[in-house]
Amino acid sequence: MGPPGAGKGTQSRNIIEKYNIPQISSGDIFRANIKQKTALGQSISGYLEEGLLVPDEIVIETIMQRLKEDDCKKGFLLDGFPRTVAQADALGKELMKLDSNLNKVILLRVDFEELKKRIVGRRVCPKCGASFHISFNPSEKGDLCDRCGGDLIQRKDDTEETVDKRIQVYIDQTRPLVEYYKNKDLLGIVNGLQSIDEVFTCIVDILERSK
What is the C-alpha separation between 141 and 151, in angstroms, rounded? Predict the structure, then answer.
């Protein structure tokens, strides 16, 4: 859990590799459906382009369908979900039906101004999926991908205006989850401004102590 650009995706990949569990990312599921032009993708594209949250009923149904698949039986990692207290309540109830529960919630805490620098500077290659940053991880070929030579682009939800909206949405709707999970004694807080390796070390320490 954490604001947009806090590093949730990066740390999720590290966690699933270490613990051999699937990563369930609502954002990835939604972007794949938009790319494939499915009915779900068409219904949510407008929300994402405006930096708004997708309605709870759509998100919950999508996530729960994914959690019923066989690869989730031994555990799973939720990346970027739940985003609201209502989603958290619904998730808890649905997990009970599956005889499952959350073991820990990791909060990546990052300064909002630093977040803006991270997100606005991101560039992606739509051809091969490689990701870069104009300051922290630039392509050796400038505006071209140094993996496949494709044109690097800024995603629509990475513009400064959209980022401001996304951060405000997080403050208004998602940050209450901090107290929600803190009260359930499930919250582990990590300083997201550390290096990727340092953040991951902290996360693993929290997860190992929660077993």
Answer: 10
